[in-house]
Amino acid sequence: MAPGKRSKSKTNQPKKKTKTASNPDDYETLGGIDSWDWNEIGSQQFMGDESTGFLCLEEISDVEIDYEGDDATGKVAIFKRKKKDNREKGKRANPMAPLAMEDMKDFYDLDTFDEEKAAATETHQAAASFTDKPAKSKKDRSDRQKEQQNDDIAMDNAKQGTDAKRPKVEDVDQSVDVSAWGFVKLAEPITHALQYYKFTEPTPIQAKTLTKALEGRDMVGVAETGSGKTLAFGIPMIQWILQQEERPTGLTGLVLTPTRELAIQVKDHLQNMAMFTDVKVTAIVGGMSIQKQQRVMKQRPDIIVATPGRYWEIISSNQEYMDQLKHIRFLVLDEADRMLEKGHFEELKKLLTELSNKREVTTEWPEDVQGDTPQKVKQVASKYQTLIYTATLDKEIRFNVKSKKKTTAGKGGMADLIDSIEFQDPNPIKIDVTTEKKVASKLMEAKIDCLKTEKDLYVYYFVTRYPGRTILFVNSIDAIRRLVPVFRLLNVEVLGLHAQMQQRQRLKNLDRFKANDKAVLVASDVAARGLDIPLVEHVIHYQLPRSGEIYVHRSGRTARANREGVSLLLCSPDEVKVYHKLCQTLRHGEKYPDFPIDLSILGDMRKRVNLATDLDKIDHTEDKASHEESWLRKMADEMDIEFDEDLVLGKNNKERADQRKQANRGKAYQLRQELSQLLKKQILPMGASARFITGSAASNFVDHMLESEGDASTILPAHAKTRAVDDVKIIRKKKKTSKQ
């Protein structure tokens, strides 16, 4: 049907003339079809497109047809209509008239159309319509609202800026002495920030790099974890922005980090340094709403801290953002060695290619073409300062940074990354403040030799004997999923952190861990790099790290900012080979000292751990069976078929399954009660009694019992409240004395 033509719909089918005579006076003759008394049919939805769709629908009633002529000469249709005195005049359609305002609600104005807002609205409406099923609409809607609230909270915590009241210059304690920073002339707002956070003196990496970085020199900085690398590259960026006579409006600095958590942490530190300025810092990371991050990008932040994957995803589809990238003033790679791992290096190489002045593009523009042959035109990018920071740097690369000689390192290695960087400085500086020890000087290291099945016991012993903020590192996500519920059953305040967690849950668990000084974080190596969690006292390697480099980064979560900390290895017989490699790589063959263990209390602790493990196995079996049944029910629901347990499981199997489930529940209840009773009791050394404290052979038993009297929360009342780091020092001192 051609555009603009009306579709004529007859609700009363035309009737052929019958042989029964009719009175001609009962009918009126209709003229041309366009002059008929049509009525418009209302439609709630637009029924066509811009080329061949309906513009409107009209109808007419009481129309009959007579035919004149015969088959030989041809028939002519005559339309006529019954006469009615009370017939209302038809309301014809006017398709060219503008729509009323109430009819415009389903349409968009092209001049003000926001594609992102429209997409978000449609998604929300689609999600709302999905909850029409009465059996689960309330629950699903509640869960979805909670999930959206959590998403918004997580994003608000990670996005640029905050609505919280920012401190003013008047809130700064001017008595804080920051004269140690006098070797560089910092802008006054930066000095105020240093005073506010009481950063009275620079760390070694800051002291050695700031002067050169402020002069615009390209640099590779190597320093131990927790040494203050973030301010070493953050202060020069903020200082440069503040020194410009005309405020820069585009992207000034791009900081790339390997993990989401590290990016958000770096963003927070930079915001702290810029709190008395109008410098805008934002984080662009995966696991969060890409639409929100695109809106943040539109606000043109001064500094972006990003993971390579998400940042490339956003800018690769937007030429405006790509152009911003080509005009940056600073490029920072934080924890550069981690970026070489799978999943990071490809996007990083793409970003470096876009920043390259050697990049060529093919053009067919007349002014660039010679003859009929397309020409390759050199891509011009702005000059930018490159700052690379890492905690580890291969020996073979340490001496090739300045020379830029091609190394023989394998594909994707640190050497390839250095070669990919186009340093603007012909003589980039390398500053290395690490020591031969490779770990922090105040880190106390020790090990416990144990069976693989006893590791849970020794972890429980350690976190009970030495309560404090502890990170327990494992090599697999399955280990995290097993350990977290076991230690929760033992009343340990435990949290999990791994790469398969949703981003909002990872951020939430990190915040909870930071807020609780007795929490235990069971983590994969996603938490081993760069995260600055304040006052972590202990790091336990539940499973030995696969390399010395990973050990250094794991252990770097404690003993930060000139504080003391403990790194404890749990070594089982199947890990001896890895242990010897660590000793050879990091300690020149010297073994780690043994951690002191009070064997007199291990018996009672073993009972608790065994009960918790058995109980967790039962819970895990029940959860697995319940999950499988829920999955089958969900599939049946989506296919609109009835779920028949007897048909799916079999009648006999169902009965056996019910009996087994009932037996497991009874056993779990019994184990839970037994464990609960044990957890209420205090643990005393073997042979000691709270009734006859003076008769105990335990050293200082009476004094320790008196100290803990009235403290119901003390699980080990017979033990002095010592720190793990002090006990390791005693062992080391005894070891040195015995050698002499």
TrEMBL record:
Start-end of Basic residues biased regions: 1-19
Keywords: ATP-binding, Helicase, Hydrolase, Nucleotide-binding, RNA-binding
Ranges for domain DEAD-box RNA helicase Q: 179-207
UniProt keyword annotation of ATP-binding present: yes
EC number: 3.6.4.13
InterPro entries noted in UniProt: DEAD/DEAH_box_helicase_dom, DEAD_box_RNA_helicase, Helicase_ATP-bd, Helicase_C-like, P-loop_NTPase, RNA-helicase_DEAD-box_CS, RNA_helicase_DEAD_Q_motif
Limits of the Helicase C-terminal domain: 456-603
Basic and acidic residues: compositionally biased ranges: 133-149, 162-171
GO cellular component, one term: cytosol
Matching Pfam families: DEAD (PF00270), Helicase_C (PF00271)
Family recorded in the similarity comment: Belongs to the DEAD box helicase family.
Protein name listed in UniProt: RNA helicase
Species name: Hesseltinella vesiculosa
